[in-house]
Amino acid sequence: MARRTGKGLTALVAGALGAAGAYFFDPDRGRSRRSRTKDQAAAALRRRQRETEARVRYAEGKLEGAAARSSGAGEFTPEDDTDIVHAIKQAFSGLEFSTSDVKVDVVGGAATLRGQVEEADHIDEVQKVVAEVPGVASVESYLHTPGTAPPNKAASLNVS
């Protein structure tokens, strides 16, 4: 087996350098090609610099957020009952069933739930989610399933 001497690679590199020289030092368009290449290289450097700066800003923001969370900032503290209602409705978005028919009222931190949900198991789940919302002192539920009377109306419907 013959040993390779690298002459082929040397010839290939020399040919590539010769072609690049002819391309950039062409008497007709060489100056514009050199100028365009210089501008494109500078633009690429600026682009990389912007990307690096953006990554640094992102990392700084992540660290700032972690520091804020560790000091207790960013925790929800409701200022009034309307804030609690919004927080409850936001908590409903994590449930895997529809709560569009559930009406929420909050007075003095006491949450009242009215309306209906599809299954009886969902009633307990909704109550649990509402009780975990910061600012909710108590939960009173008048939720019911379709076709059943609300708990606060059942006694009066049975009398008539």
Write out key terms for the chains shown.
single chain, 3 strands, 2 domains, 160 residues, alpha+beta, elongated, Histidine-containing Protein, Chain: A
Tell me about this structure:
The mean pLDDT is 89. It is built from five helices and three strands, in the order αααββαβα. The chain has two domains: 14-70; 81-159, 2-Layer Sandwich (Histidine-containing Protein, Chain: A). Helices cover 56% and strands 12% of the residues. The longest helix has 41 residues, at 30-70. The protein is α+β, with helices and mostly antiparallel strands and 160 residues long. The chain has helices spanning 7-24, 30-70, 81-92, 120-131, 154-159; strands at residues 102-107, 110-116, 138-144. The chain has a three-stranded mixed sheet with strand order 1-2-3.
Q: How would the blueprint of this fold be written?
A:
Elements: H1 7-24, H2 30-70, H3 81-92, E1 102-107, E2 110-116, H4 120-131, E3 138-144, H5 154-159
Major sheet: size, sense and barrel closure?
A: 3 strands, mixed
Radius of gyration: 35 Å
The helix content, as a percent range, equals 55-70%
Give the tally of β-strands. 3
Ranges with pLDDT <50 over ≥5 residues?
A: none
What overall form do the CA principal axes indicate? elongated
Q: Which class do the helix and strand fractions yield?
A: alpha+beta
